[in-house]
Design a protein that fits this description.
Blueprint lengths: L8 E4 L4 E4 L2 H5 L23 E3 L9 E3 H4 L4 H17 L2 E5 L5 H15 L3 H5 L10 E5 L13 E8 L11 H26 L6 H5 L6 E9 L11 E4 L5 E6 L5 E5 L2 E5 L6 E5 L1 H6 L9 E3 L7 E9 L5 E2 L18 E2 H9 L15
Parallel strand pairs: 3-12, 4-5
Antiparallel strand pairs: 1-2, 5-13, 6-7, 7-8, 8-15, 9-14, 10-13, 10-15, 11-12, 11-14, 16-17
Helix pairs in contact: 3-6, 4-6
C-alpha cells in the first residue's frame, strides 16, 4: 500500500524555493496568490451541468429529535423510528437535535482540534502515518502519494475504540477527546438500535452482528484553510464513507454539500446539532435499502473550516454482508458480497476516491 506521508509541495518565488507538507502551512505563505497546479481540481465531465442549491422548503433536510427516540411514549418513539428509516432511505443523511452530548463539550472539542492543527508542523509530523489502522495518523489530501490532484485539506485520524488513543499535545486534548468519544460512541449505538428497528430487525441486531463491543470508532478531524482560488480547488471530492454512521460537527463555516436527487445541497448546521451520515457498511447490511450519502467539501477564500467526524463502524475483523433476514432469493437477493471491514478500508485507501467507487467494487 502506498504511504500516506504527505509529499512536499514546492512553491517557487524569485529568490527562494519553499516546501510545504501541509495545506495550512501553504495557505499561510505570505506571497501565496494562486494555488500550485497540483491542487487544481477539474470537475468530473459528467458533472458539467451540476446544480448546487440550498435546501428546498418542499423537500427539507430531515431533522430527528433524539429525545423522541429515547422517550417512554411508544407512539412518539415509533414515529421517530419511521422518520429515521425514511431519512436513511431517501437522503442517507439527517440532522440530529436534542441529544445528550452537551454543547459545552462539543465546543471544547472543536477548540482542542484547532489547537492540534495549530501545533508546529514538526510536532504534527510525528503522527504522519502509513497504515489505515495506525492509532493516530496525520496527513494532507486523501492519499497524497496516489492522488492525481491534491485536495485542500489537512487531517488527523485517531482510533478511540476499542482502544483509546490520543496525541500527547495539545494540553487537555486527551481528557476532552476521551469524554467526547465516550459520549458519541454511546449516541451512535443508540441511533443504530433505532435504525435496526426501522429495518424490521430486533433492537440490538446491528450492534450484535457488527460486533460493536469491539467495534471501530475513529475521530477524523479535517482542516480546510482559506484558499486564494477556491473555484479551482476542492477540500474533499464527492465520496461516501466506510463504516455504519458518521456523526459530524462543524465550526460554523459552510462547505459541506450532500448529493440529493441529482443536486448538490448546501448543508449548514445549528449549534450542537450533529449531522448524521449513513455510511457504506449500513448500505451493505441493509442490502441497499438505506443509502450511504455522497458528499463533498468545498473551500472558501475567507475563512477556515473545520469538521470533526466520529466514525461508528464494525469491528475490523467483522465480515459485513447483507442481513439474511432482509433477503429473499427471488424478490430481494443479496446485492453485495461480504468483506471484512479492514479489507474494505484497505480497498478504499488504495483506490481513487470519487462517488461510490469503492462501494461499487463489492456490488453484485
Amino acid at each position: 500500500m502506498a504511504s500516506s506521508v504527505p509529499p512536499e509541495v514546492t512553491k517557487k518565488s524569485k529568490n527562494r524555493t519553499t516546501s510545504f507538507k501541509s495545506v495550512k502551512t501553504l495557505s499561510e505563505s505570505p506571497d501565496l496568490t494562486s494555488i500550485p497546479f497540483s491542487y487544481k481540481f477539474t470537475t468530473n465531465p459528467h458533472d458539467k451541468n451540476e446544480i448546487v442549491a440550498d435546501p428546498d422548503d418542499n423537500d427539507p433536510i430531515p431533522v430527528i429529535d433524539y429525545s423522541l427516540l429515547a422517550t417512554d411514549t411508544p407512539d412518539q418513539r415509533a414515529k421517530t423510528i419511521r422518520d429515521i428509516g425514511k431519512a436513511c432511505e431517501e437522503w442517507g443523511f439527517f440532522m440530529l437535535i436534542n441529544h445528550f452530548v452537551s454543547k459545552s463539550l462539543v465546543e471544547k472539542m472543536v477548540d482542542q482540534v484547532f489547537a492540534f492543527f495549530n501545533l508546529r508542523e514538526e510536532e504534527k509530523q510525528e503522527y504522519a502515518g502509513k497504515k489505515v489502522v495506525d492509532p493516530i495518523r496525520y496527513g494532507t489530501s486523501f492519499n497524497a502519494s496516489e492522488d492525481r490532484v491534491l485536495f485542500w485539506r489537512d487531517f488527523v485520524k485517531i482510533i478511540v475504540h476499542p482502544e483509546f488513543h490520543s496525541p500527547v499535545k495539545p494540553s487537555g486534548f486527551r481528557e476532552t477527546s476521551e469524554e467526547y468519544s465516550r459520549r458519541t460512541w454511546k449516541l451512535g449505538r443508540e441511533l443504530l438500535k433505532g435504525i435496526s428497528e426501522s429495518l424490521g430487525l430486533e433492537l440490538n441486531y446491528i450492534d450484535r452482528t457488527m460486533n460493536l463491543d469491539s467495534g471501530l470508532q475513529m475521530l477524523a478531524a479535517n482542516l480546510y484553510p482559506p484558499c486564494p482560488q477556491p473555484e479551482f480547488a476542492m477540500g474533499m471530492p464527492p465520496h461516501s464513507d466506510h463504516g455504519l454512521l458518521n456523526l459530524l460537527i462543524q465550526n460554523g463555516v459552510s462547505g459541506l454539500q450532500v448529493l440529493h436527487k441529482g443536486k448538490w445541497i448546501n448543508v449548514s448546521s445549528t449549534s450542537n446539532c450533529f449531522l448524521v451520515l449513513v455510511s457504506d457498511h449500513l448500505e451493505i447490511m441493509s442490502n441497499g435499502k438505506y443509502k450511504s450519502v455522497v458528499h463533498r467539501a468545498v473551500v472558501s477564500n475567507g475563512a477556515t473550516r473545520m469538521s470533526l467526524a466520529t466514525v461508528i463502524a464494525p469491528s475490523l475483523e467483522t465480515v459485513v454482508e447483507p442481513a439474511s433476514e432482509l433477503l429473499d432469493n427471488e424478490s430481494n437477493p443479496a446485492a453485495y458480497v461480504g468483506m471484512k471491514h479492514i479489507d474494505y478500508m484497505e480497498l478504499q485507501r488504495s483506490n481513487q476516491l470519487y462517488g461510490k467507487s469503492v462501494l461499487n467494487k463489492v456490488k453484485i
